[in-house]
What does this fold into?
Amino acid sequence: MNTLVISSSPHLRPRENLTRVLYDVVIALVPALLVGIYFFGLRALLVTVAATASAVAFEALFLKISGKPGIGRAAFDGSAIITGILLAMNLPPSSPYWMVVIGSFVAIVIAKQTFGGLGYNIFNPALVARVFLLISFPVQMTRWTAPTFFTAEAITTATPLGLLKTEGLQAVLRTYSNSANLLGAIPGSLGEVSAVALLIGGIYLLVRKVISWEIPLSFLGALFVFTGIFWLIDPGKYAGPVFHLLTGGAVLGAFFMATDMVTSPLTRKGMLIFGTAIGLLTGVIRLFGGYPEGVSFAILIMNTFVPLIDRYTHARIFGTRG
Amino acid sequence: MIMPGKLLTFRSGGVHPPGNKHLSEHKPIRRVPLPETVSINLNQHLGKPAQCAVKIKQEISVGERIGEADGFISADIHSPVSGTVRKIQTVMTAVGTMAESVLIEVDSEKTAEDLKKYQSTPDCAPEKLGKKEILEAIKQAGIVGEGGAAFPTHIKLAPPPDKPIDTVILNGAECEPFLTADHQLMLEKTAEILTGARILRHILEIDSIIIGIENNKPDAIRAFEKLIETDSYPGMRIAALKTKYPQGGEKQLIKAILDREVPSGKLPFDVGVIVQNVGTVFAVYEAVYCGKPLIQRVVTISGFVNNPGNYLLPLGVSFEHAIRAGAGGFRDDTRVKEVINGGPMMGKAVRQLDVTVTKGTSGILVLSDQEFSYDGEGPCIRCGRCIDTCPMGLMPTLLAMNARYERIEGLKSVMDCIECGTCSYVCPTHRQLVHWIRAGKVLLRKANRSVK
It folds into this structure.
């Protein structure tokens, strides 16, 4: 007879484990990634590989230097891989590799590990890196290429939102159709262009209950309503709400960035507030800000409000009024 | 009939852990050969331990009182065997505390002979019996809640006059995985339980008795319905419940069946309800009709044993004897990892196998190295699953964190936790949330004491 183990209840093997949850996210990213590679060529794949490999490497290196146990497990729990892939998906396909690696460093070491590692970071690591790169390397970060389909040379061009900001609505409507925006045959970050592919991944996450509907729906809904109101006021000047949903990082942000568990509110009510605020902020930045796109900023701004939202959206305790 | 669309349930939270009930389901209740000695603890109930009423070397027979209730919330304890008192000693209990215990050397033949006195009973309607006499009989029988908390039943059945009771709920939900003791008892003692329910209806002067059963026990639901249709049991009905953990939690059960919410910090009788486990009601029947004290109970022995099943165990039998002589022993002694008093969600791991069966032991569960897993805690990734599934509407991860860092101001709601274990079960990083919340309760109690 062995010595009996004394563990605290419950004694059933837990239903889930972290790695499975995180690899579900990786699986959900695959369709959008494949579309990105299809439209932007091998370069898109290499940028993704560079971002992911360097993210995992920085994670392992940091854990080793800081003397944390279980380096192998922590580095491959899926979280660094997700950060790497998400970073790549938020970068222009033509990003230089050195810039990608700097981005991974910022995401993993500065935005995640210095805050205490997985679970303790306040800001979405991939977005911190993206914004860091956007401010530090504005030229490389705004050099967009038209989809090449593995054939033609990469042609530098403007994204639909960029064009809207600089040339106005009529130029955009002449250049891009809603169906191109939906499928993703438009210039943009390598993982954000195809709304359809992102939706497929998003639905997978919803079905697997990795994310819930509150954040994506309130985010996209608020963006739709906000841009819709301005479109109704002056359809000659403002782009329609469908255009705003299908372009830029709206769908990627709604399903994959804003839903990051660590940096979003704990309760359903809090998620609705969080998502709605991101949608509105995105609209404000797109319509009135200096940048053509505002998803990253909107999410990072709202990340700071998460503790406050959590405080005021406590679940209703059984047997109490509120 | 059981209408799947009409199943009752509590609404917020809850989980569906694998039931594992097939191991012991429908196994007839069996007796276990008596051991050479039994060790009967004197603190088998909530409240003050009973005072020892026997001396060393005293000859004792079945049903004799060996512990006397001490104070208002306490209960008598009786001998399940005939034999000789050998020791009065301090032992470890199945819940890990220390208790005074009476060790009796068992005389098997005399025990079997003496047990016969409880068998024949004159039949008479419970309504003809005096209420005071019934309550006294329940008190004399040392009956306590068999569902878990082991609260003395004679106190529960005499609620204060300012708390009018209109409904009694018999708890036959048995939502803990693995456990089937209540299920089997409901199948074998259907009429006795209903008669027990009639006794409760009579002494509490109420109209409504509702038996709550999860719909994974359709045969038990049918058995009760068949008898209720005969009109011998007025005012009774069955509530078929959705199979969902923790459906059998007292507050969840009341919510599911009556849509009443027991206010935070209050008890069921504050909403006019008394909840009794079906086993307890059977004990009430035996006390009133057979004059039999609570000296044995049905216990599910399951998991990594050769003959999982439902066993009628005398109080004071060691877990080791129950497993070896009753359930056919461990499947492989070298692979046993953990032995649990109760079910896997809320039960407590025992430290040693010589701990004994008490009035509150509903199950003995053996986990092997296959089922047992502990790979350490990960960080909270704030996924919110513990919050979504908490049946009490708490935020377990925050409570656990506040307990860990001793932030008393963040522990205000900690006492609302029923420790059902749902949060820890769904946590993807396997955090020991219930463990820390329990620690939080201790912290809060200590802080409140120092304020006073």
